[in-house]
Write a structure and sequence with these properties.
The chain is mainly α. The protein has six helices and no strands.
Length: about 140
């Protein structure tokens, strides 16, 4: 991956943060429609886009979902830039998405699995977005 110019970095960060907001709204809409797996998927991707924006804003390159989890933990959780619970929320959303998308023998419950993560996901997205925007002066 090549190094991004400052203007490219800002543009990508802004785009990813906008995508995070759209994905969150899609999750909420899916919940209202009763689409459990879709809502789990969109909640995770809302957080994913926000966290990836934060990493990009800070010049941290990753190629995989696990790489994003690792770099987020190393650079923002272990350093206490963000509270530990933000890392826990991100990991829970990742696990939720994996279960909803790939697990054939376990179905997600809207009330037990998805709804408890809606507000924590919003908190994570807000906290991460604030840091990414500050880093890029957006």
């Amino acid at each position: 991956m090549q190094t991004l110019s400052e203007s490219d970095r800002k543009e990508i960060v802004k785009y990813r943060l906008e995508k995070a907001e759209r994905a969150y709204l899609e999750a909420v809409g899916s919940i209202e429609s009763g689409f459990v797996e879709t809502s789990a998927n969109r909640l995770y991707y809302a957080a994913y886009y926000a966290v990836s924006a934060l990493l990009i804003a800070n010049g941290i390159q990753t190629k995989t979902h696990n790489g994003i989890i690792q770099q987020f933990g190393l650079n923002f959780i272990k350093t206490k830039v963000l509270e530990r619970k933000m890392g826990t929320i991100y990991n829970q959303l990742f696990s939720l998405r994996l279960t909803g998308d790939y697990e054939d023998r376990h179905s997600l419950s809207l009330s037990e699995d998805v709804l408890p993560l809606v507000e924590p996901a919003r908190m994570l997205i807000d906290a991460v977005s604030k840091l990414a925007k500050a880093k890029c002066n957006l």
